[in-house]
Write a structure and sequence with these properties.
The chain is mainly alpha-helical. The chain has 2 domains: about 10-225 and about 275-310, no CATH class; about 230-270, no CATH class. The chain has helices at about 10-30, 35-50, 55-80, 85-95, 100-130, 145-170, 170-190, 210-220, 230-235, 245-255, 260-270, 280-305. It is elongated. It starts with 10 loop residues before the first helix and ends in a 7-residue tail after the last helix.
């Protein structure tokens, strides 16, 4: 009998075949909903914490933390179910000649496009809502572009972490159960917003939020901004009386009459500067480098897990 030999498509061809499939799913299976959702999240965050972003130390810290949260949220929801929802199909096609590297590469390209669109939408929403952007740029002529690179790298890193979880999880239910835990870890160990014990600080180096928050604080020139917490706290006590007098009120009136308020706020800020947030391109490049490293690690682990999908008996 005549034997038939089947010639499988090469890795590049398979990549584009699956990439086309993913974009069809984007259009016809409502995967496009992640885009308007990112706009809504960006608008809510801008409304809540955007007023003092890149204006004061406290506003910059809170705002960059919130922007990191947007990126993590978007990245997780982009891909947390992408592989596990078609796990049986992947297993069958792998046995039929599917190259896992091509499959993962298609997801990487597709998710990269999604992340870019989400960053553009986020920056557009911030612009529409008149949120202040960094005044100076480091690498491009536009500060918004520099900030956009940081937002993209955080989002894409979180996206690839979620893709790794999706490669590991057997069902979408399992993946969605793991996601809140990872989200809490990313937010809690951001390294700047929460005061962590010394023994917990090394864990911050494992999170995308740590590197994203640090990069954005450096880009926003955190250390040159005023600190208003001490002033605002003291101002609440201006009417406190001591032996029938209001010494704090008198002090505030003297400061205002002599235009000393801004100098006092900057002097307070000097006592709370953080060298990690200096306006230094090397700091930002280091943060970007770590985000890229973790992204590559997640991709490699996802490929390794999927290469053994045929042996998965779970």
């Amino acid at each position: 009998m005549e034997e038939y030999q089947y010639k499988h498509r090469g890795r590049v061809a398979q990549t584009f075949i699956y990439l086309g499939k993913l974009f069809r799913m984007f259009l016809f299976q409502n995967d496009w909903k992640v885009l308007p959702m990112s706009a809504v999240i960006a608008a809510l965050v801008a409304f809540a914490v955007g007023a003092n972003l890149f204006k004061t130390m406290e506003g910059t810290m809170m705002g960059t933390f919130a922007l990191s949260c947007i990126c993590i949220w978007n990245g997780f929801f982009n891909s947390i179910q992408m592989i596990c929802r078609e796990r049986a199909i992947v297993k069958r096609e792998h046995r039929a000649g599917l190259h896992i590297t091509s499959y993962v590469a298609a997801h990487m390209i597709y998710q990269m496009v999604l992340c870019v669109l989400q960053v553009v939408i986020t920056l557009g929403v911030l612009k529409i809502m008149s949120i202040k952007m960094p005044e100076r740029s480091m690498f491009t002529p536009w500060p918004e572009a520099d900030l956009g690179i940081s937002l993209f790298l955080i989002t894409y890193c979180a996206d690839m972490l979620a893709l790794l979880v999706s490669a590991f999880a057997r069902t979408t239910t399992t993946a969605m159960t793991i996601m809140p835990f990872l989200l809490i870890v990313q937010l809690l160990f951001s390294g700047g917003f929460f005061n962590l014990p010394a023994e917990a600080k090394p864990l911050t180096y494992l999170t995308a939020t740590k590197w994203g928050l640090t990069a954005m604080c450096a880009q926003g020139d955190y250390n040159s901004q005023p600190m208003v917490t001490v002033w605002n706290s003291a101002l609440k006590m201006k009417d406190v009386e001591v032996e029938g007098e209001k010494p704090l009120l008198t002090m505030f009136q003297y400061i205002e009459e002599n235009d000393m308020r801004d100098d006092l706020l900057m002097e307070t800020a000097k006592q709370n500067q953080n060298p990690e947030y200096n306006f230094d391109p090397n700091i930002v490049l280091k943060c970007w480098g770590w985000l890229i490293i973790w992204t590559v690690v997640y991709v490699i682990l996802a490929v390794v897990l999927l290469e053994f999908i045929d042996k998965d008996k779970r």
